[in-house]
Design brief:
This protein is mainly alpha-helical. 64% of the residues lie in helices and 5% in strands. It has a 5-stranded parallel β-sheet. 43% of the residues are buried.
């Protein structure tokens, strides 16, 4: 009776009361799978995904073939970004019911989250063999095909969906995104406006407005583009509030790191943590949107190099240091030499498990904002080589404002042009500080040099690393086309190298006016005045 009362409350939208009834029912009898399942549904309705998953998991433990519990467990895990854990639930559903389209969709999403987009496409095709006109499977297939740069098939798949579901706003969004990537900018603008007018969920409206801004920018409609980016970012700010992304917290963290890693501190720690470790990775950093994603597939194409594709082992080490309870970087004061050795081993183990086999290869840890953590780099790997990508500060800040990033404390600063400038000033001031105190080997290269003198710039980077040019580099674009898009800027990597984004800021000089004074010292320092 308590369980049924909970269901009535849940159907009425009285979710907290439903939760109480379900908990009362479980207190009387905790062996009923559907009691745990519906408690999970009540918790999920309150955005308590972790607790909801625990309930769904308990329901599966009691009834291993409960399809609703299996499906809801997978969905909860996916919402928390725990895609690897979601996959077994999806596979179990498909073992019981091969024609379950929702399980096939969830499995495809899990594969994409695990950066295995080709596996996702395979699963979606299997689902469509059973249900060839399933709109959800077709939409997800079109999205996955776009991620692996199969744009013509993605466009034809969207046409199939439109025949089944005319007027679907998500279909219009995907059609617009694909058209923009095919450089059909007028069509892209039309389809994206259509998607927005039809009505989209908040997260998809943010994407549509961002894509519309990119299409308008490519057509030279700069003021309209900036307005679209502003609207997209305002939507993201509302979303960021719900996700508690904290831009000022990142700026405080950068200031703390600069204060901590003084020349005296770094020298003292270096003496304390002397090492003869011969494992010396390369750290490839720069402010976001400085062109690191353009250089990364070039380096990946070299047979003697292994790149991390932004799965940074250094970031994993920082998480471990933070877990000590004192926080980073202050916790470094309490470390002993054995701790540092353990972190070096952890770094290598993370590489083997998440990046690839290091045998006979030089590791390039590519994550732009590791530029903030170069003090730790020097402690862990004193002889490591550091490559810093530079780009005109005005173009960098504009590009960050235009880009739709996954939200975290750092990226939250790019939702407003003023805080974009503050973040640039904070991070690159720290780099100038590091330049004066870091011993060892580092180099800077300019994005503008890369797109204007590609071979010469790449050769200088490879020579700095110590591997030299290799003929495989000529085919880097073809190799990149076979890889799934994993970062916001990766869509542009498969296009021929061009200078279209150089000095883009000139078309937006009025909009950039509030941040130009604080960027001026860096414009001069890096030679862009």
């Amino acid at each position: 009776a308590r369980h049924m009362a909970g269901i009535v409350c849940l159907q009425r939208g009285q979710v907290p009361q439903a939760e109480r009834y379900f908990r009362d029912a479980i207190a009387l009898d905790d062996q009923q799978a559907h009691f745990h399942l519906n408690l999970g549904n009540a918790l999920g309705a309150q955005n308590r995904a972790r607790e909801a998953y625990e309930c769904f998991h308990q329901a599966v433990e009691l009834d291993p073939e409960n399809l609703a519990a299996l499906s809801n467990a997978a969905s909860a895990l996916l919402s928390m970004g725990r895609s690897a854990e979601a996959r077994p639930y999806c596979l179990k559903i498909l073992e019981i019911e091969p024609g379950d389209a929702e399980a096939r969709l969830s499995l495809a999403v899990a594969c994409i989250e695990d950066r295995d987009t080709h596996a996702a496409i395979e699963q979606l095709r299997k689902g469509l063999e059973i249900q060839p006109d399933h709109a959800g499977l077709l939409i997800q297939l079109a999205s996955a095909l776009e991620l692996v740069n199969q744009l013509d098939e993605a466009a034809s798949t969207i046409e199939r969906v439109e025949a089944i579901q005319p007027g679907n706003p998500r279909v219009s969004l995907l059609a617009g995104l694909i058209a923009r990537r095919q450089q059909k900018f007028e069509l892209a603008e039309q389809r994206l406006q259509e998607a927005i007018e039809l009505g989209l969920p908040p997260s998809e409206e943010i994407e549509a407005l961002n894509q519309l801004g990119l299409a308008l920018d490519a057509s030279g409609k700069s003021q309209e583009a900036f307005t679209a980016f502003e609207r997209s970012n305002q939507g993201m700010i509302r979303f960021a509030g719900a996700r508690r992304a904290n831009g000022p917290a990142f700026l405080r963290e950068v200031a703390d790191i600069k204060e901590y890693f003084s020349a005296e501190k770094l020298s003292g720690l270096g003496e304390k943590f002397e090492t003869d470790d011969d494992f010396q990775p390369v750290f490839f950093v720069g402010f976001p949107r400085s062109g690191t994603t353009l250089m990364e597939p070039v380096l990946k194409a070299h047979p003697d190099l292994l790149t991390t594709d932004e799965r940074s082992p250094l970031y994993a080490v920082i998480r471990e240091i933070n877990a000590s309870g004192r926080g980073y970087p202050q916790a470094i004061d309490g470390l002993m030499t054995n701790d540092l050795i353990r972190y070096r081993h952890y770094f290598r183990d993370f590489c083997r498990e998440n990046v690839g086999d290091l045998e006979g290869k030089r590791l390039v840890d590519k994550l732009p904002l590791n530029i903030v953590n170069l003090g730790l780099v020097r402690l862990l790997f004193p002889q490591a080589k550091i490559i810093v990508a530079l780009r005109d500060p005005r173009d960098v800040c504009l590009s960050c404002f235009m880009q739709k990033f996954d939200l975290n404390d750092a990226m939250a600063n790019f939702l407003d042009i003023r805080t974009s400038g503050q973040a640039y000033q904070s991070v690159m001031d720290l780099w100038l500080h590091y330049r004066t105190i870091l011993a060892g080997s580092w180099m800077e290269y300019r994005y503008e040099s890369l797109v204007e003198n590609f071979d010469e710039t790449v050769t200088s980077v490879l020579d700095f690393i110590g591997v030299g040019w290799h003929e495989d580099i000529a085919g880097y674009r073809q190799a990149a086309e076979q890889r799934a898009i994993t970062t916001p800027s990766y869509r542009d990597v498969t296009a021929p190298v061009n200078t279209s984004a150089v000095a883009r800021w000139r078309r937006y000089e009025q909009e950039l006016a509030p941040i130009l004074p604080e960027l001026q010292p860096f414009i001069e320092e890096f030679g862009y005045d």
